[in-house]
Amino acid sequence: MGQRRNVLAAGLVALASHAVAQVGSICPTTDVCFKLNIPENTASSGDGDIFFQISAPDTYNYVALGQGSSMSGANIFVVYTAGNGNVTLSPRLGTGHSMPQFNSDAQVTLLEGSGVSNGKMVANVRCSSCNSWSGGSASFSGGNGNWIYATKQSGGAQDTTSQSANIDEHDNHATFPWQYANAKGGNSVNPFVNAGSSGSGSASGGSGGAATSCVPRPAGAAVTGTATTGTATNGGSSRATSTKTDDDDDGSHYGRPTNFPSGWTRPTARPTGNPWEGYDKRALLEERQEVNYCDESSDPSNTEFSPISSGNAGNSQKMLIAHGVLAALAFVIFFPTGAIAIRLASFTGVVWFHAAFQAFAYIVYIAAFGLGVYIASEQRMLSETHPIIGIVVFVVLFFQPILGLLHHVMYKKHHARTVWSHLHLWLGRAAITLGIINGGLGLQLANNSPRAGFIAYGVIAGVVWLVWVAAIVLGEKRRARAAKDAHLARGVHAAGGHYAPKENGT
């Protein structure tokens, strides 16, 4: 009877622990798992410490978990082996498609249970600065948040204690929403120390993962399989060797054991009074014991790792492609063609053809610019060189029609170039050159273009730029020749007259 009361007490303690501490677990692959605990105070205020666990095979070069919807502006935590059974936690800031840099301002602590064992590297982390960082912020009072992860399987273990060690581009990565409902609760100083710090995790299927809620097993609670005493930590709880079940239910459909423990004596009378009246005490106890302990991490019923919708990713990719194509057409085809025409063509109305063609090119660029600003804003990349140059070029081109009109009017009046002429000419040349260069920077920033794409763009843009420069040189020579002829003819200006000088050739 006393033994049965102990089992009942363990079940009640387990039930209470579910309200005290929850750990949300998600595994993007069968080898990589992340766990999260948002303490009750943090969940209610939206601000405060959070706890997370990162685990991956110790043969990986690194594994990383980050807050954010893209690498740019993300709050990233990189874990790699440090040698001697230890791990290195490297907090970093994402800066686009370049290596994240070490963030010395991050307030993070490696907790007990971190290290390398049984083929896994595990980092149990307390983060006190995950609400705000340079480039972003997060609140934990809501129902979910955007996270990212990345792994580098190849390259071998790092085995370094340097938090600013160089890391190569990841092999796998994804952005995913983490549902916080299963991770909120408790005020533990280390919710993972009793939560199976091996961090092995598991998932059904070759590419699926687990998204589960679990609680640390309280001291004295029954475990499935053979419990090993091991080294007691934070309360001395024992560790289980089997996967998740309903504690003492291995042999029965309703969770009842097939054999009673030694010394078990069936009671001869049922307790009376509420809340037990009219219930099967064992069934109620077993129902209460259906707790998902963190040391029973394999739960085939939970296999939902949901990266950000592929449809959304597909739309973003389409917008990125459209932005690149439109911008390339504007600066590699349309703007240079219009500029070459005004230099080499001599038909009637060439000035207005030039103006109309450049206006069309600008409209194309407006569409590319709008897409680019939207993409850069969504991915927090407006501080990158590519979007900054794009904005500068957009502003410069906005004034080009006005300067071009002033150039034309003043030239017709003075029969010579004025300051407006030079502004129009040189700002246009600078804008086209910057636009062509910026296309290459955009391909570099996207970081997903094939090498052939880089080469093709570079060759085509380079050839067009050289042809355009040759047209400028040839046009200036023609203008000089026209100036000389006009000087000799005393008052006769070159046909077309747009770039013809005064009689004195100036």
UniProtKB/TrEMBL annotation:
Residues covered by region (Disordered): 224-278
UniProt GO cellular component terms: membrane
Gene3D superfamilies: 1.20.120.1770, Cellobiose dehydrogenase, cytochrome domain
Low complexity composition bias: residue spans: 224-243
Keyword line: Electron transport, Membrane, Signal, Transmembrane, Transmembrane helix, Transport
Main location, first listed in the record: membrane
Every Cytochrome b561 domain range: 287-480
InterPro entries cross-referenced by the UniProt entry: Cellobiose_DH-like_cyt, Cyt_b561/ferric_Rdtase_TM, DOMON_domain
Pfam family, one: CDH-cyt
Keyword Kinase part of the UniProt annotation: no
Ranges in a coiled coil: none
The protein's name: Iron reductase domain protein
Annotated source species: Karstenula rhodostoma CBS 690.94
Organism taxonomic ancestry: Eukaryota, Fungi, Dikarya, Ascomycota, Pezizomycotina
